[in-house]
Amino acid sequence: MQIIMKSMRKDGDNWRLLTGSSATTVYLPKVSRSASAEGTTQELKVVAVGKNGQRSDAGTVAFDWGMTVSDTSLPKALAPNVVIGAKSDRFELPRCGW
């Protein structure tokens, strides 16, 4: 019998699906929390769902981010890839391969 593991994150009073997998381990590359989240921990939950729809008891864990949402910021924009005033000693047109 195939079992699907559903992984979820708590967002306020709601659970949001992160991913589902038929494997015994799950990689969660995009775990996030809302801007209104408080504290440093977030509850995560895993539930096994059988082919017949039968669900297991949930396994939960408090994931510790180690910082609050207000401790973080959005990444800065990348600098443009130019050097003002640079001199080039040669110039080549791109080859089109015809």
Short description, anyone?
By secondary structure, the protein is mostly beta strands.
Please tell me about this protein's structure:
The chain is mainly beta and 98 residues long. The protein has a 4-stranded antiparallel β-sheet, with no helix packed on it. The chain is 0% helix and 34% strand.
Question: How are the SSEs placed, and which strands pair?
Answer:
Layout: E1 3-11, E2 14-21, E3 41-50, E4 59-64
Antiparallel strand pairs: 1-2, 1-3, 3-4
Largest sheet: 4 strands, antiparallel
List segments where confidence is low: pLDDT < 50 over at least 5 consecutive residues: none
> Alpha-carbon distance between the termini?
57 Å
Number of strands: 4
> Residue share in helices?
under 10%
Main structural class: mainly beta
How confident is the prediction overall: mean pLDDT? 83
